[in-house]
Automatic annotation (TrEMBL):
The keyword Nucleotide-binding appears for this protein: yes
Record key words, sorted: ATP-binding, Nucleotide-binding, Transport
Record bears the keyword ATP-binding: yes
Name recorded for this polypeptide: ATP-binding cassette domain-containing protein
Pfam families per record: ABC_tran
Domain ABC transporter: 3-230
Gene Ontology MF terms in the entry: ATP binding
Top-level taxon of origin: Bacteria
Family stated for the protein in its record: Belongs to the ABC transporter superfamily.
UniProt organism field: Pedobacter fastidiosus
Length: 235
């Protein structure tokens, strides 16, 4: 199992932002992590990536504990935060070399070429990040997330703010990248889940209210639309 979460909680004072959740995410599958605003999605993503310490519970990434084996665990994770922080004054190649260098990657220039090709950045590779469209900037974000070839990819609202064409392209790219990785996407967009996810978790008020394959959840709800199922479970 690439991601294993047991009894995970995060409390802010009295508020239980995440309340004793359990789930697993499997290789070769894309898991959609859905919930209304304030449900606990970002808090969970930030704990999965080791940026936020849980109040209680355990997280293992590829068998490594995110707290006690943090360096090993983080080596297996690629992370695209919401509003990807990128250096707009840096050139695409310069930025990716900078990130790759932080991971101490061997043959860095070859690896930078590889990821540029993989995420479809070739035509824009000589530009400054600040000159790129939002869609291409998101490709740079994905390139930095995969440069160290992690087996787990965590993407926080990866298509927010993209225009319809960029959205289709970035979803296709995520689907392609997901073939040999474990991908978790946090989103509140139902079409996104329908378009790319294999499995779905719905979180509401810090608790998991559904955990199933996309097909399974529809079957369990008499083939209702995902929107109706979501509304019913998070009301
Ligand atoms: P989502 O990503 O699903 O919108 P969040 O994980 O951001 O939800 O937030 C879950 C809950 O925890 C919300 O009620 C939010 O207000 C609260 N919360 C998040 N971060 C903090 C914080 N640093 N301090 C206090 N409360 C927080």
């Amino acid at each position: 199992m690439s991601i294993s979460v047991k009894n995970l909680s995060k409390h802010y004072d009295k508020q239980k932002a995440v309340d004793a959740i359990n789930f697993e995410a499997k290789p070769g599958r894309i898991l959609g992590f859905l919930g209304p605003n304030g449900a606990g999605k970002s808090t969970t993503m930030r704990m999965l990536t080791g940026y936020l310490e849980p109040t209680a519970g355990e997280i293992e990434i590829s068998g490594k504990n995110i707290l006690s084996q943090a360096i090993d665990a983080k080596r297996h994770i690629g992370y695209l935060p919401e509003n990807t922080p990128l250096y707009s004054d840096m050139y695409v190649k310069e930025f990716l070399s900078f990130i790759g260098d932080a991971y101490n990657l061997p043959n860095l220039s070859v690896r930078v070429e590889e990821v540029i090709k993989k995420v479809g950045l070739t035509p824009e590779q000589h530009k400054k990040i600040g000159m790129l469209s939002k869609g291409y900037r998101q490709r740079v974000g994905l390139a930095q997330a995969i440069i160290h070839n992690p087996d787990v990819l965590i993407l926080d609202e990866p298509t927010s703010g993209l225009d319809p064409n960029q959205l289709v392209d970035i979803r296709a790219l995520i689907k392609e990248l997901g073939k040999d990785k474990t991908v978790v996407i946090s989103t509140h967009i139902m079409q996104e889940v329908e378009a790319i996810c294999d499995d779905i978790i719905i979180i509401s008020k810090g608790k998991i209210v559904a955990n199933n394959s996309l097909e399974g959840i529809k079957k369990a709800h008499q083939n209702s639309s995902l929107e109706d199922i979501f509304r019913k479970l998070t009301a």
